[in-house]
Amino acid sequence: MKGKTEDFIVFSNGPGEISTWVYPVVERLLSVEDFRERYKSYLIIHPCQFGSGTEHRYAEELNFFDSVIGPSDYLKLLFGFKSLKSYGFKKRGIIVSLGGDLMHPVIFRFRSFGHYKLYAYTNNPGWGKRYERIFVRNEYVKNKGLKNRIPEEKLIVTGDLVYSSIKRLESRERVRSLLNLDDDKLMVLFMPGSRDFEVKYMLPVFLKVIEELAERIVRFTSYILKSPYVDYNLIEETLKDAYKIKEADVSGGRIFKQKSSGVFTNFIETDKGIKVPILEGGLEKWGEGVDLAVTLPGTNNIQLAYRGIPALVVAALNKPEVIPIEGIAGLLKWIPGGRLILRKAVLKYVKKFPFSSLPNIYTNSEIFPELFGVIKTDDIIDRMIRLIRNGEIDKIKRKLEVFKLDKDPAGVIASAILQG
Fold it and tell me: Are 41 and 65 in contact (CB under 8 A)?
C-alpha cells in the first residue's frame, strides 16, 4: 500500500451488477499498472432490496479489492459509528457507481468531506449533475438523462455493459464431454436464482417440473446451475421445507455426491428418484453446451441473450409480497402489517411492465417466451413441452441475433475514467 495515494471506490448493490458490471470495469482498470499502483481499491455494497446478502463473499473472491465494505458497515460509516480512518481512506480519488441508487456516492463524498470525481454506469440517471460522466446503455437511457437536465457532454453511450462480462471458458464439445452428454440430448439448465427467497420458492417447483418432464421427454437432460451467491446450506434447507410451499406443485429431495467423469459432483435426488447434477462455475464454464435455460427474470437473462442461449423466463407472482420493488413501497415488508399492503403494491407495480425479462423489455418484443403472473407448475411443464416439440428453440436462437455488439463497453468506460 506504500505507493497508493488515492482511493478508487466502487459502489454497487446486487449479485447481477457485481458479476456483470463491476467485474469487467474493475478488471480493465486494475490491468493498468499505473492505476493499480496509485489507487487503493474499495467496494462498498450499499443497502438495497434487490441484494442477496452474500455479495461480499463473491466480491472478496474476485481478489480485486483491498477492502470490501458490506451494507451494515457502510451505514456505520455514514452515521459515524465507524471512522473512515479505520479503513485507510485517503479522501481523494475516484468513485464509480456500478449498480444501485446514484445518491450513495454523492452522500459518501459529502459525509467524508472528500475530493472525489464521480462516475456512473446506470439505467436510471438521477443525480447526474453531481457526476463527471454518466455512462449509459443506449440513446433511450441517454434521453432520460437529458430530460433530467443532465448536460449532454456528461452522457456517454457505451452499449450494454453486460456484454463485457461474457466469457467462454469451454467449447460446446468440451462441456458435453465433461457431462457425458450424448449429441442427441438437449441440455436444459434450470437457474433458480441467487437470492434466498428465489431459491426457496423456485427450486422445489423446478424439481417438480424436472420429474414430470423426465417421464414425458426422453431426449433431454436437466441440470441445476448454482449461483455463487447461494450456499449448500440454503439448498438443503429448501429441500427439507419444500412441501411447506402451497402456491404451486413442488418436489423435495436430498443432496448427495457422486463420481462423474472422474470427479465428485453434487446431485439432487428428487423424491421420485430423479438425479439432477448441480453445476458450479457459471455460464462461463457451461453455457456453450446449453440448449435451453429455464430461469427467473434478472441480469442473467441478458447474459443468456448475448450467449445465444434460448430461455423460458418464469416470473411467478404467486407470492408477490416476497418480490423486491423499487422505492419506498419496497420497505413495507419491515413494517407490521406491511406485507399485505406490499402484496397489493407489487401487483400494481408489475402492471407497468408488459414484459418481465430484460431482453424483452429492451427490444419491446418477446425474444424470450415468458410466464408472467400467477403460475401453476403445469404451466411451466406445458410451455416447455411446446418449446421442445414445436421447434421453438431454433426460432428463439434466430431472434437472439439482435444481441450483438461491435465494441467493449467496459473498455470505453475504463478509458474515459483513465483520461479523467
Answer: yes
Class of the CATH-defined domain 172-402: alpha beta
The Cβ-side half-sphere exposure at 327, using a 13 Å CA radius, reads 6
Residue 214, by phi and psi: left (phi above 0), alpha (psi -120 to 50) or beta?
alpha
Q: How is domain 6-159+407-419 classified at the CATH fold level?
A: Rossmann fold (3.40.50)
Task: Name the burial class of residue 195, with classes exposed (0-12), middle (13-18) and buried (19+) by CB atoms within 10 angstroms of its CB.
Answer: buried
Provide the residue ranges of all domains of the chain, joining segments of one domain with +: 6-159+407-419, 172-402
Q: Locate the DSSP E strands across 133-271.
A: 133-136, 155-157, 186-191, 220-225, 253-260, 263-270
Residues making up the chain, counted from first to last: 420
User: Is 100 within 8 Å of 48 (Cβ atoms)?
Assistant: yes
Residues 25-34 have pLDDT tens digits of 999 999 999 9
One fold for 6-159+407-419 and 172-402? yes
- Determine which helix (DSSP H) or strand (DSSP E) holds 6, and give its type and residue range: strand 6-12
Strands 292-295 and 311-316: parallel
Q: Provide the 10 A C-beta neighbour count for residue 381.
A: 19
Q: pTM for the complete prediction? A: 0.86
Could you give the percent of the chain with pLDDT greater than 70? 89
Distance separating alpha carbons of residues 47 and 321, to the nearest angstrom: 19
Name, in order, each residue with C-beta under 8 angstroms of 188's C-beta and a sequence gap of 6 or more: 213, 220, 221, 222, 223, 290, 291, 292, 293, 294, 384
Alpha-carbon gap, residue 54 to 212, rounded angstroms:
33
pLDDT tens per residue across span 356-385: 999 999 999 999 999 988 899 999 999 999
Q: 262: how many CB neighbours lie within 10 A of its CB?
A: 6
State how far the Cα of 179 lies from the Cα of 262, in Å rounded to an integer: 10
